[in-house]
Amino acid sequence: MPGFAREGDNRCRENIALALLLLVAAVQRAWNALSLPPLIGYDAPAHAGYVLTILDERRLPDPLEGWATFHPPIYYLLGSVVWRLLEPLGPQAIETGLRGLGALAGLAAGWVAFVLVRRLGGSAVVAWVAAALVLFLPSAQMVGVMVGNEALAAGFAALALPAVLVLQRDPGDPRAAVAAGLLAGLALATKFTGLWVAVACVVPFLRPGLDRHARSALELCLLEGGVIAGPVYLRNLARTGSLFPMPRAIEPIRSLEAAHVIRPRQATDYVWIDPTCILTPSILVPASAANDVPELNRDMVSVWCLAHASLWYDPFGHRIAHHHPVRRWSGPLLTVLGVFPTLIMLLGFAQASVALARSRLRVPDAPLTAMAFAGLATFVAFTWKAASTTDVKGSYLLPLAVPAAVFFARGMALVGVRTRRLCLAVSLAAALAAAVVFTNGLVHRSEGLAIDAIREWQWFGRVFPTTHLGEAIQRLAGASPPGQ
User: Fold this and answer.
1) Which of 399, 335, 450, 451 is nearest to 183 (CA)?
2) Taking CA atoms, which of 41, 108, 272, 445 is between 20 and 30 Å from 9?
């Protein structure tokens, strides 16, 4: 049986290559989780305060009680368990554990990307590069070692998709229905973006003539998701009158966001990208001799430019400070390299969209395409209403990382052999360059929270006194509590 032997050998080599990729990503994430300064990242002190509210008061905060309390609670409930278990080992162990939740979820997303690209017909090489992009995309690396819920929500969404694609092939499969509903429910109970994978779960059942097995599977899927996520959203509705409450109208959050608005949002912000914003991936223009105060980078009015910059770099200065010299070359390097896999992905997305329409939702990857449309529509609606540069984060799109990997594979199949090799090489270079730049201490070492930032967060802790925000800073970063 020589043919079967060759097939087995190829599968073994694929598995070894994937295992090595995941091992490298795991080691890098572990290093970053251990070595990065405490509480750097998107609203990390507020997320830690949410966990402390659960730990110290044994309650969930009200959705509009503080800075980050509107988020669904799954990450914070898991984080409270991690905190309690690791508390005897000290603050570094606690923060490493909190970061580990997102790190593991990111590894899961990379694994799912490889599996689904192969399952849908992509080659092993393309699947491996697609997985590398999912693992080492800068925004994925960053949120994967932040205290916060974004990486975990994206991980749950990724883990739901294999079961969703089984349902697309056989909508009567009860085990796939249970798995899809369970994981989609967890994603939706972790972050509002879980809604996108819920859309994907429905697509397999949008066909005429469903038999009783398919109807039963649909009921199972809805039941699993509803049992997990339903109480969260019913509570939101009862407490705030909204399924998706946002504290944007609460002071001082409203004033802080207003200070980061370049100008009111315009429709042209979604159709025009100034190339200069790709070369200056920062929301701030550095201070100069003429102006000693940094100003907002006006090129960042382009929503897709800022989204690209925050997917492929750190425009908000959490890991690479705005004044750091390494930013001068590393930012343009990553954002320019990132253009190539992005264009290939968009090519594949365009083809998938045509196939979706022509097949009336029956192609194997239709749930992924529908999920992408749901995510993009939500992102446009959100950024239209929230014009602040701080609200246009590419990390919000991370639940679409696995669909993007599949679209990347579709795009690769559309180009010629020579072009495909070049695109694969550049895409792999982009992933490797991102891994190098965002491995703490390899190119540069990330700075801790500045004194001014600590004082500002402590002030927010006084404004929202029941959210344990200042206490979280004291216990994890060692900063003195307000007034001392």
Assistant:
1) 399
2) 108
- Indicate the pTM of the whole model: 0.94
User: Distance between CA 320 and CA 169 in Å, rounded?
Assistant: 45
Instruction: Render pLDDT for 114-165 as a digit per residue (tens, 0 to 9).
Output: 999 999 999 999 999 999 999 999 999 999 999 999 999 999 999 999 999 9
Owner of token pair 């984060």 = 393
Which of 363, 364, 367 has its CA nearest to residue 355? 363
Residue 4 has pLDDT above 60, yes or no: no
- Taking the C-alpha atoms of residue 99 and residue 147, their distance in angstroms, rounded to an integer, is 5
Structure tokens at 393: 């984060």
Please tell me the distance from the alpha carbon of residue 152 to that of residue 109, in angstroms, as a whole number: 10
Q: pLDDT band at residue 292, thresholds of 50, 70 and 90?
A: low
Element of type H or E holding 131:
helix 124-136
Q: How far from each other are the two terminal CA atoms of the chain, in whole angstroms?
A: 77
Contact 467, 59 (CB under 8 A): no
What does the block give as tokens for 472? 């979280």
Residue reference for tokens 């089984």: 166
Q: Which residues contact 323 (CB under 8 A, 6 or more apart)?
A: 286
The answer to whether 148 touches 102, Cβ cutoff 8 Å, is yes
Q: How far apart are CA 358 and CA 86, in angstroms?
A: 53
Q: For the chain, what is the radius of gyration of the CA atoms? A: 22
Tell me: the pLDDT tens digits for 48-104? 999 999 999 999 999 999 889 999 999 999 999 999 999 999 999 999 999 999 999
Residue 94 near residue 68 (C-beta atoms within 8 A): no
Residue 180 neighbours by CB distance under 10 Å:
31
